[in-house]
From TrEMBL:
The keyword Hydrolase applies. Gene3D superfamilies: 3.30.1240.10, HAD superfamily/HAD-like. NCBIfam families: Cof-subfamily. GO terms for molecular function: magnesium ion binding; phosphatase activity. GO terms for cellular component: cytosol. This is Cof-like hydrolase. It holds the Pfam family Hydrolase_3. It comes from Actinomyces johnsonii F0542. Signal peptide: none annotated. It comes from the Bacteria. The keyword Chaperone does not apply. Keywords: Hydrolase.
Amino acid sequence: MPIESTDALAAGCLMEEDSMNAVTVPRTVFLDVDGTLVTYDNVLPDSAVRAIKEARTAGHRVYVCTGRSRAEIPETMWVIGLDGMIGGNGAYVEDGGEVLLHQHLSAAQCEQAVSWLRRRGLEPYLEANSGLYASPIFRDTARSAIRAYATGKGTTGASSMEVDDAFPGMVFTDELVRDDVNKISFLLNSPEADLAAARRKFPDLIVGSWGGSGHEPLFGDVSCAGVSKRHAVDVLLAHRGAARRDAVAFGDAAVDIEMLEHCGTGVAMGNGSREVKDAADLVTDDVEADGLAKAFRRLGLNG
């Protein structure tokens, strides 16, 4: 059974009293981004920044492990002092500026997927380390899905959100064939039927979904076979010569479950779903309630 924290000030007191001693073995810490490191309004809590800096000073290494591509990691996140990242839900691994893994779609795979999706009326956008790319019509076709996603996450101003708000810096172009794409996300019209058709069409690729909050998913995605956060964690740990039992993973979404179960210690955010909490060793508070910092303290990562 996972250990659950309580809310607000009481949780802070509980964490102080029950806090483990500072760990002597260096840990490798993997942080999901949205809903874990930053709030659903994309706010990076000061408490999380302090906790990460203290953990790194104590000799631990800290990486983000996210569905975002490298282009979606802002400088404000890097200046915390992150040691590297896992991006594209495991398609890309970077440690100290060295690229250890980059599983990306070929130009031919990209062209085939984009053509089929557009013929079916499932407008796609490309996620690459160089940026996000979509056709000019994506602004209009994706508006309702973006607002539904933001509403489900409790994002401020969700009802008036535009695609440019959700994806700042997205490049709008009719040239949607590239050879550096980590994954292709696409709108869903009839989720069950669309995803089943995509899996039949692309049996050599992974077809997933995301964006639902208590209802059917809003987006599908296509990526290379073998891509997962779990595999990427193993690649990075092997490169560092670090043990899996000394790895700590934080997450809030279903895509994080495999990583939480695979690492020595799995931590679920309080804002995560019940299935995520059930998979974790520790459940901390919500991201907005300093959940990350409280868990770092509880695990003795601050030195």
